Amino acid sequence: MTLRMDAAIVMVDDDWLALFSAFAHQASLTCILRVRTSSTENWRVCAGVCADPTKLTKAQHCHRTLMSNPHALTEAQDDAEVFAVMAAPPSSFDLLRDKPSSTGRRKLRKDVHRDGDWHCSAHVWLVDAERKLIAVQKRSASKDTFPSRWDISAAGHIEVDCDPLTTAVRELAEELGIDNIEREAFRFGFICPAEQKGWGGCNAYEHVYFVEVDSASCPMNVGEAEVTDVKWIAIDELEQKLRRRDDEYVPRVDAYIETFFGYLDKL
Length: 267
What we know:
By secondary structure, the protein is an alpha+beta fold. It has two domains: 3-42, no CATH class; 82-265, Nucleoside Triphosphate Pyrophosphohydrolase, CATH 3.90.79. The protein is built from five helices and 13 strands. It has helices at residues 17-27, 109-115, 164-176, 235-243, 254-265; strands spanning 3-6, 9-13, 32-36, 41-42, 82-86, 102-108, 119-128, 133-139, 150-151, 154-157, 187-195, 203-212, 227-234. A hairpin with a 4-residue loop joins β3 and β4. It starts with a strand and ends with a helix.
């Protein structure tokens, strides 16, 4: 059995997995763990390193490291955030053209969620168009909506006096540690009014952005107060899970699903 350090990659035989996990945790190593067996090579979860060996091939690396994310929040949410309260959407709302209308009121996050007020959020989806993959995160068990479910690559509410794109850029850094993507790379897709309070969520106008990346070289450093895991899955698989309302995934309203996958088909 051999243990080798090569750049930021630690390669370890299967029999060493448990021992290395404890060692890496204690030493706070900045590394990516790759487990090599006699017959195959997969990526495993070890000492906080994320991967799903059933979903990733050797070329589809999930680069979550043990290094701390300097942008990460210390709490799963902040009830003191202030949101602009929006008017409820008309039945004729066009996801590709229309925008939400403000009521001029402001309320605390906890009150907006309690009262079911309409407000705004920003979604960022990381997409590897060449390999037909998309990144999903697992929400923390401490989240006040849809805890411990797989969700958008990164997302967050839009605070009062902040714009959707700035929020999208910020959330990608806070939740996945990605802070080196230019604003111009965030491609706006659509705005979906999603009435989800009755599903355990909230009522929000969801501003959706897409960022194309190479899944084999996209380092991710989760903010663990908000996110516990991240992985790449096939776009087709995500579509199946959302359409059948898989209870391991945050549900999306029908209009979101149709517009979202219609957009991805054009990439």
